[in-house]
Amino acid sequence: AAPGPRSYTTLRDEAVKLFNSLQQLELERDPVPLMQGVLQTCLDLPPLVDEIYCQLVKQTTEPPAPGGQGDLHYWQLLTCMSCTFLPSPPVLRFLRFHLDRRSRFPASEMAKYACFIREALGKTKGRECVPSLEEILVLMRRQEMICTVHCPGAPACSVAISSHTTAEEVRGHVARELVSRLGLSQSPNLFALYEQSRRREQPVGSATLLADVLTRFE
């Protein structure tokens, strides 16, 4: 399930807990739940976002085992952070300098993460929810998610989305699919996306990130 409400102590204590979580990340065989926990804390306590970015830059600068499991997990968490939060301008400049240094070695796996993160930072505007477990797994592989949209009177549409894809973009894609499948080129009807659960059904706002909707389903 997606993380629920949490109780927190002081920012200093929570920063120490996050640092301990990052140390533990090196050894985790399944790092996804721990990554989601770090992201949730940063969402709930925004002043810690810069702290985690700085810690991740430190951990990915001259690591003891470049390309090893621990180094890889830090880059993967940095990838998830870049698709969820923007750091403050000074930290963003520091982070981009770090990414540019790594990008000088394009053949390495870490350089591929650096390029992905740099591109993501140009699109991230902030999230309502932290990435779902599924989204984190996809981001760890630098891939896209497949979103299934169920359409009345027509087969479901599968749409590839990123952490930055809005409902408006998906709605446009699905509308084009339906117009083509059902021969509705002359129809004046409009299309809307709805989010449906056992308890409610509601329209999805045009600017809503589909990744946030999927997290709520999780």
TrEMBL record:
Q: What is this protein called?
A: PKHH3 protein
Q: Which intervals hold domain MyTH4?
A: 1-140
Q: Which gene encodes it?
A: Plekhh3
Gene3D superfamilies xref list: MyTH4 domain, Phosphatidylinositol 3-kinase Catalytic Subunit, Chain A, domain 1
Q: Which GO terms describe its cellular component?
A: cytoskeleton
User: Which PANTHER family does the record associate with it?
Assistant: AGAP003327-PA (PTHR46049), PLECKSTRIN HOMOLOGY DOMAIN-CONTAINING FAMILY H MEMBER 3 (PTHR46049:SF5)
Q: Name one Pfam family in it.
A: RA_2
